[in-house]
Knr4/Smi1-like domain-containing protein (Janthinobacterium svalbardensis), 347 residues
Amino acid sequence: MAVAPLAALHRKLFDETDGSKFARLKERLLKKHAPDDRLAVLDILTAYARDGQLLHWRSFLMTDIVHLVEGSQHAAFFAWALEQPTLAYWGVDGLLKSIGVEAYAPLVALAASGATSLEVRAKAIKSLAVFSRQPFDQGLPTDPGHWKAEQLRLDAVLAWQADGYPDGAGYKAPATHETLTRPLSRLEMAATFLDRKLALRRQREQDLAQPSNWLTLASAADMAEIEAHWVLPEIYRRFLAWYSPLRVHVDGKRFPQGLHLYGAAELVKAQHGYSVDAVHHHTIAAWPPKLVVIADAGGDPYCVHLEERSIDGDLPVYRANHGTGEWRFELHTDDFIDFLHEIALAA
């Protein structure tokens, strides 16, 4: 009697000892069977996470398990996973997804446990913050794996528990300029095009505790600091004031090392290592004095010149390679708006 395809794949997974082959079998399981037999696939994956012979794959499977789970049928598995050091990190999200607010008490206990690793404690607090819309993660790195022990806001978490786990207000999206919905000028249309492309990135992944890939209104204080350092070309000054990049980072074929476009809050400090010595804060003589770095790709600076203008008031963007012993600047785009279009196409 022939063995059913899912049963045969189940057996192969548990028998496989080669990690690369296991990965291919796992992908086949997810693509061919998860859409129609989600619960059966979950049973196979959770069984492997408990008893599979490839130990690293037992933990790697947790993200797939969390993605597939719906409802409380696998709550007992996630409760067990929280007690396993290598599975607890993603067990946090699995338990929240399975039983919602009923997961609060065990996750607060996990966060408070000195016997639990810092990474897992931080993950518990981060996921509780996201689920409850409480600001336990405000201003902290998006990845809780980068949190330090002193950043665990355990007192706030315990106070929230004592108050009966109320829902928080969550985070508001950053303020944006009205012209992003009604663009008229070339600059406004370029900024709107870039924002629409960045919005696609925000839809895929966004943490409003540390929002990224936004074009936002600059603060008056940030603009005042900039104006104390330079008299910027008007088109670039307006871009910063109306569409200040907030953690804007794009990558791809155009920028294989990734490009970071500076916002008003970071522009002054971003000159460190280029025109300003990062340690002693004195001006570096070898740097051309009229160039302001507005972005970098893997350390390679992209600059505007304070005294160059095109006929329509735009300005060219220059680029140089770092680490060559001396700065050799080349024209990158004829105007700043073209540079914004290039970034948008890479977003």
Q: What stands out?
A: The chain is about 45% helix and 10% strand. Residues 135 and 301 are 35 Å apart (CA to CA).
